Amino acid sequence: MTTVYLNGAFVPASEAKISPMDRGFLFGDGIYEVIPSYGGRFVGFGPHIDRMHSGLAQLSIDPKLSLADWQHIADKLLADNRAELGDNLGVYFQVSRGTDTKRGHAFPANIAPTVFGFAFAIPSEPVADKAKATTYAVVTGQDLRWQRCHIKSTSLLGNVLHYQQSYSQGAQEILLFDKDGNLTEGAAVNVFIVKDGVIATPPLSHKLLPGITRQLLLAILAKHSSIKVEERDISEAEVLAADEIWLTSSSKEIAPVLYVNDKPVADGKVGDVWLTVQQLFSAHKFDY
User: Fold this and answer.
1) Fewer CB within 10 Å, N- or C-terminus of the chain?
2) Do residues 207 and 178 lie in contact, with contact meaning Cβ atoms separated by under 8 Å?
3) Residue 251: its pLDDT value, please?
4) What confidence score (pLDDT) does residue 195 get?
5) pTM of the model as a whole
6) Active site includes 152?
């Protein structure tokens, strides 16, 4: 039986109970984070918590937990669950506004946030090997989500519907474009393209999540490589003409896309720039 964290206590998962009047259940009124760890070492723990605190502040939710508090909870979740789940674990944190006695849209006063965390097994960390890379086929579509995609809210229906759009077409992700035809992100990933050796990714805005893998990758490239990187608007035509396309997320790290709308990306093979960049990411991801 795995151990979870709920409102200040570590309890068996079967004993964790949350009220159906919780606003996370009724409204999706909350923030979440997923943080990967390998052999007990977290990737980007501080940046993940910083993003969660930013999202909570935008929702006016204060769980009154510091970075050190979150670190203690996460470390104990790893320690209590590694024997059963293995050495490669993700930690999921979710904070909702809490439970009220009635349902109403306005923020209720004087209720305590609900804080929940659990650990789950994840695959071994990706390696910089073209033959072992997990590759993706994607489709394209218009971004129909809300205008606050920079908040990592538990209200994920828009993302779920877009992911299902790709899944129903036999793909594993979708590349989304705004009303002006510019790339935003995927259903659960940020997106990079490569053309003539130059890496590009959309700039941060309300249209996309400030992904932690995206953040770490940009920092690593700036510090440890001379590869040119651009944060700018990227048209659909540029995406379709790219030499390489990557999906980034905490679970995928840097994943090559080989097909878009059933058509190959360039020669349909994992690219050389991906190999170089994945090598750098693997070498430095624990620095953050």
Assistant:
1) N
2) yes
3) 95
4) 98
5) 0.96
6) yes
Both structure tokens of 283: 């070498």
Q: Kindly give, in sequence order, each residue whose CB lies less than 8 Å from that of residue 29, ignoring residues fewer than 6 positions away.
A: 23, 59, 96, 97, 154, 155
Q: Label the pairing between strands 114-121 and 3-6.
A: antiparallel
Q: Which CATH architecture has domain 3-121?
A: 2-Layer Sandwich (3.30)
Question: Which of 152, 207, 252, 285 is labelled catalytic?
Answer: 152
Q: What is the pLDDT of residues 203-212, one digit of tens each?
A: 999 999 999 9
**Amino acid identity for residue 154 in this structure:** T
Interval 22-32: pLDDT, tens: 999 999 999 99
pLDDT band at 152 (very low <50, low <70, confident <90, very high): very high
State both tokens at 231. 């944060």
Answer yes or no: CATH 3.50.50.60 is held by domain 130-287.
Answer: no
Report which residue type is found at 237.
Answer: A
**CA nearest to 187, candidates 204, 170, 206, 165:** 165
Which candidate, 97, 140, 159, 112, places its Cα nearest to that of 245? Answer: 140
